[in-house]
Amino acid sequence: MQTRMVILLGVLFFIGCAGTRSNTENPELQPWAGMWQGLAIQESHHDQPQQWTLILSQKNGKLHGKLSDDIGEMRRKKLEEIKLIDGELHFKVQYETRRGLHLTCRHQIKLQDDTLLSVFSGMEGGRALSGVWEARRMIVKAVMQQ
């Protein structure tokens, strides 16, 4: 009986500590969190500008995010290698283009007020591409339940 009580208390202590860590937020990352939307222009292609949407959230003191576009290539692709370096956000995203080619795209983003200014570059099927993306923070209204 006493052994069970010690195990139960140990499990409760472990769960309590784990819960505290999961709510840890990094204040340096907070300005980046939110939904961002704007036009991306690939300078090395003759494609039309695309509307991109970036959703960034903070969990366990780290940024997590997904990127999507208006033509359905990215389909809410998960961001990889998210880092904040000297006040700039860096990440990469990989997906298959509508041309059937694999694309790895790296972003380097500066934050100015409520605007993201991104310079991106990548490789699409062995061919280099580059471009710029300017996105504004979107205000998402909370749905109130009654």
Enumerate how many helices there are, as a single number. Answer: 1
Tell me the CATH topology.
Lipocalin
Read across the widest sheet, the strand sequence of neighbours is 4-3-2-1-9-8-7-6-5
- DSSP E strands, number: 9
Any idea what the radius of gyration is?
Answer: 20 Å
CATH homologous superfamily designation: Calycin beta-barrel core domain
Order of helices and strands: HEEEEEEEEE
Mean pLDDT value: 84
Distance between the termini: 47 Å
Domain count: the total is: 1
**The CATH C-level class name:** Mainly Beta
**How would a textbook summarize the main sheet?**
9 strands, antiparallel
Topology:
Elements (H helix, E strand, L loop, with lengths): L1 H21 L11 E9 L7 E10 L2 E8 L7 E2 L1 E6 L2 E9 L5 E11 L2 E10 L2 E12 L8
Antiparallel strand pairs: 1-2, 1-9, 2-3, 3-4, 5-6, 6-7, 7-8, 8-9
Summarize the structure.
The protein has one helix at residues 2-22, and strands at 34-42, 50-59, 62-69, 77-78, 80-85, 88-96, 102-112, 115-124, 127-138. With 146 residues, it is mainly β. A nine-stranded antiparallel β-sheet has the order 4-3-2-1-9-8-7-6-5, with no helix packed on it.
